[in-house]
Amino acid sequence: MSKVILENYSKKINKKEVLKNINYTFDSGKIYGLFGRNGSGKTMLLRAIAGLIYPTSGVVKIDGKILHKDMSFPPKLGIIIENTHLLPQYDSFTNLKILSKINNIATDDDIKQSIKQVGLDPDSRLKVKKFSLGMKQRLSIAQAIFEKPDLLLLDEPTNAIDEKGVEEIRTLLLNQKKLGATIIIASHNKEDLSVLADITLKMDEGKLFYEQA
Amino acid sequence: MKIDTKFFLIFIMSAVFSWQLLNIWESHDYLALYKGLPLYLDYIKIPVYYFWFACISFYFVGVIEDYLSGYGVLLIVRNYSLPKLVLRLFSKVFIELNAIVSFQFVIYIFISVITKKSILEFSMIEFIKSYIIYILTIYLLILIQLLLEMYVKAQVAMLITNVYAVSSILIGSMLFEIEKGYIFLYLLIPNFAMAARTTIFNQNSFSIYLPSVIVLISIIISGIIFVSIEKIKIKDIF
Question: Smallest Cβ distance to A71: which of B75, B81, B236?
């Protein structure tokens, strides 16, 4: 379970303020939906919470601990963010197995279960480079959830996934919520957000606005 | 590029450079790889020796960039502590560097045997001294390259490091020629990996003093590790 608090968080990149004085608390066991135009700061906010960018001012606290001071990244973090990808020369299972060796908290069964949950075959030896866009996205979701994270940051998680797949992913995310994870989803898909999100937030020009519960 | 492809390239390039190195130096020394070319050789022949380093520099290009983008992001967020990650990465580089340098040495000896070059008498002490100074110098240069990758693109970092390596050796050659300003050799670190030129082990000449070189390199390596850790803590990862 992760409670995420942003206090006076601002970030400037090349003199442009991409996140402006953000104050917000994300509670555990809830799904937060982030929407906004391209370049409004949604992905940047996910990066800030993930510890991938360093604040110009302000802090991010995860369960009371300050990011970049008490730890480099939130513990038990699952993430899908743009520009990340899995290793094309390996199959699904091997890809997750390699990642699992870093912390040794997921078993082979956990890996297989996650791959199955996203609608892929865990025993398939098909290499990721032969995957369709939708299959790659499904595997990214499996990558984010297989270690049973406390904090899930998902940037456009249902991109390129077919209708049936979207339903499966939604069910999966609702299950993660039941397990107590804090889930933050950035999406252009309003249907996704209306079905999944307990709280919807809007980003506009680097500012965060409370939209609706 | 996959690691095994890089290793294959190192194998081919090492074999070619071994053959060239053996051809330009008549009185063959089995430690030529670790001691560099002697002072009496024309400096124009030095590039052959430089290519050994170019191979190593090429092998490590993009190591930091790979961690800070794409798949690397999935690895990095699972490591919780960036300082520990940097220390682990630099240790891994040191181990791999030892493997590559030993591999290059084996190829060099192998080529010298098949080309029937006589091998001078073996001295374990000189071998160890040459190896230590060589590996420390090359490690320092690779760390400079990795540190630069945190500020500029990997290719630019490699270029800057290689320009520094080549220009250091050329300026060093100039100092030997005019027999002045040997103190500046301490700033031209790549020369340390050329014990045969700097007479680093010969205490009676103009002499670059071996213990002070080891202390200097160790201090700079520690400094680079410290700066790398501080830099990566505040580096934005996109």
Answer: B81
pTM of the model: 0.85
pLDDT digits (tens, 9 = 90+) for A117-173: 999 999 999 999 999 999 999 999 999 999 999 999 999 998 888 888 899 999 999
Q: Give chain B's domain count.
A: 1
The answer to whether residues B106 and B15 touch, using CB atoms and an 8 Å cutoff, is: no
Question: CB contact, 8 Å: A39 with chain B?
Answer: no
Whichever domain contains A138, its CATH number is: 3.40.50.300
Residues 6+ apart with CB under 8 A from B221: B136, B139, B140, B143
Domain of residue B199 covers: 3-234
Total structural domains in chain A?
1
Domain coverage including residue A204: 4-212
Name the β-bridge partners of A182: A151
Would you call A72 and B233 a contact, using CB atoms and an 8 Å cutoff? yes
| Cβ–Cβ < 8 Å for A52, A83 | no
The DSSP bridge pattern shows strands A31-35 and A182-186 to be parallel
